[in-house]
Design goal:
Blueprint: H1 6-13, H2 17-34, H3 48-57, E1 69-73, H4 81-87, E2 91-95, H5 99-111, E3 116-119, E4 131-137, H6 142-149, E5 153-163, H7 167-174, E6 178-186, E7 194-203
Parallel strand pairs: 1-2, 1-4, 2-3, 4-5
Antiparallel strand pairs: 5-7, 6-7
Helix pairs in contact: 1-3, 2-4, 2-5
Length: about 210
């Protein structure tokens, strides 16, 4: 059992008491639903405030103040999408093809008292959405994430990806298809993790 608590998470993310209550409601919702469907590994639930909430919530500090909308790719258990919905006033779009997980996300949004839009479909089939920020966690290599993000981002939009120790290999592989302008910052939840902030990218075959 981890000794990292909800209060520790609240301090590290500098969130309000109201947001703490939303986190608590979402945590309870996750534990209840995880008994029915596999949302997260059961071994991580004893450390969920650090492994899931802190890990997801650290992205809020990377979101530009001018941003108004965000799309979370492959939202699954709501990380980072529902956590960011609890922390911000952004228009949140959660993209998840699995039916049961989509129901979980909708009910999770109600549990925290936030309005989100859940798109129950494959990411590559989604059309007509243009957002300021795209996020993803433990979904796919960088090359694939950029493929997913490109049609969803506004011209000056950014992507925020939570990545692990394979990032450098993924970036090397992505250079075959993409020119990328990005920065990296160390994760505050996982010593082996980092946040990849992609501020601009274009296909290799494209011209300026």
């Amino acid at each position: 059992m981890s000794d990292y608590t909800l209060d520790d998470c609240a301090v590290d993310l500098a969130v309000s008491r109201e947001t703490v209550e939303r986190f608590k409601a979402l945590g309870d919702h996750l534990i209840k639903w995880n008994e029915r469907i596999n949302l997260v590994s059961k071994t991580t639930l004893s450390d969920m405030w650090r492994r899931h909430f802190l890990d997801s919530g650290q992205l809020a500090a990377q979101i530009p103040a001018s941003a108004r909308s965000l799309a979370d790719l492959g939202s699954g258990a709501g990380f980072p999408g529902l956590v960011l919905a609890a922390m911000t006033d952004l228009e949140i779009h959660l993209i998840e093809s699995d039916t049961r997980k989509s129901v979980f996300l909708r009910e999770g949004a109600r549990a925290i008292g936030r309005k989100v839009t859940v798109h129950q479909q494959r990411i590559e089939s989604l059309q007509g959405l243009a957002v300021d920020v795209v996020t993803a966690r433990a979904l796919a290599p960088v090359e694939s994430l950029l493929e997913y993000a490109e049609p969803l981002l506004k011209k000056d939009g950014i992507a925020l990806f939570l990545k692990g120790n394979t990032l450098e290999t993924e970036l090397t592989d992505s250079k075959k298809s993409w020119h990328i302008e990005s920065t990296q910052s160390r994760s505050i939840s996982d010593p082996s993790g980092c946040i990849l902030k992609v501020e601009a990218f274009r296909r290799v075959r494209d011209r300026k």
